[in-house]
Amino acid sequence: MNKENKFSSGIKANLEEVQSRIAAACTRSGRSLQEITLIAVSKTKPVSLLQEAYEYGCRHFGENKVQELTQKDEQLPRDIQWHMIGHLQRNKVKYVVGRACLIHGVDSLRLAEEINKESLKKNLISSILIEVNMAKEESKFGVAKEDALELIKEIAKLPAVQVRGLMTIAPYVEDPEKNRQYFAGLRYLSVDIMEKNIDNVSMDILSMGMTGDYEVAIEEGATCIRVGTGIFGERDYQLV
Ligand SMILES: *Cc1c(COP(=O)(O)O)cnc(C)c1O
Predict the structure, then answer these.
(1) Among 60, 68, 104, which Cα is nearest to 84's?
(2) Whose CA is nearest to atom 6 of ligand 1?
(3) What is the whole-number distance in angstroms between the Cα of residue 100 and the centre of ligand 1?
(4) How far apart are CA 170 and CA 37, in angstroms?
(5) Largest pairwise CA distance in the chain
(6) Domains of the chain
(7) Which atom of ligand 1 has the smallest separation from the CA of 235?
(8) Of the residues 64, 83, 214, which should be mutated to test ligand 1's pocket, given the most ligand atoms within 8 Å of the CB?
(9) How far is the CA of 199 from the centre of ligand 1 (A)?
(10) Which of the residues 116, 197, 217, 232 has an alpha carbon 20 to 30 A from that of 10?
(11) What are phi and psi of 138, to 5 degrees?
């Protein structure tokens, strides 16, 4: 093993692999590469690895903890777009509004109201996605798909919050085909909601697909995929 390999993080090769799979999934489904935003999910990973991914072209990063997001943001280039992809507690909203370009996991009116309040204070409009629990998993956050429209109608009344689309976290499965139904279901739901023409609501973002299933998600219409392990390798939660 030469020196370079020994100390290589593998990020460059991983990114190339992910990018070529994204391209293949786009070709299979007749979509354009420009429709897909790759979010590098960097939770638990050190800033040095994010810097490396940045050097290879990544500009969208996803974190699920507020403190980690803010600390990393302060150490990295200003043109990074941060995505809050985890469950956000209301008392931490103030740290995220104005910092994250998109808050993915909104699943209650109370949380949206807090985001609205903080956005008004800062004189800006926050883009959010509504998280839908497509597989009805008890352990997961997200609104039931039957309740999504009602929730969105309420959130739409808040002046400083803009609903931009939907997000889902599919179950962990060995065979990604098993999640196709949930991705397709999220897309159908977004079309239904779009057809209601609600003021202040657009459905141009579908955030779905992770390392194990992003290709299927792209085939089913994902516009944002959230890839962690596939770019940075396995996470070691003991380090954080
Ligand atoms: C951790 C995480 C991911 C990335 O998961 P990988 O399987 O490592 O790609 C994506 N989305 C959310 C919401 C996450 O918390």
Answers:
(1) 104
(2) 228
(3) 17
(4) 18
(5) 60
(6) 3-231 (3.20.20.10)
(7) 8
(8) 64
(9) 31
(10) 217
(11) -60, -35
**Token output for 211:** 């390392």
Is the pTM here over 0.70, yes or no?
yes
- Output the pLDDT for position 231: 98
Give distance in angstroms: CA of 41 to centre of ligand 1: 6
Closest C-alpha residue for ligand 1 atom 5: 228
> In tens digits, what is the pLDDT along the chain, a chain of 240 residues?
444 444 578 999 999 999 999 999 999 999 999 999 999 999 999 999 999 999 999 999 999 999 999 999 999 999 999 999 999 999 999 999 999 999 999 999 999 999 999 999 999 999 999 999 999 998 889 999 999 999 999 999 999 999 999 999 999 999 999 999 999 999 999 999 999 999 999 999 999 999 999 999 999 999 999 999 999 999 987 655
H-helix or E-strand containing 181? helix 180-195
Kindly list the protein residues whose Cβ atom lies closer than 6 A to any atom of ligand 1.
41, 43, 64, 85-86, 169, 210-212, 226-230
Quote the ligand 1 centre to 235 CA distance (angstroms). Answer: 10
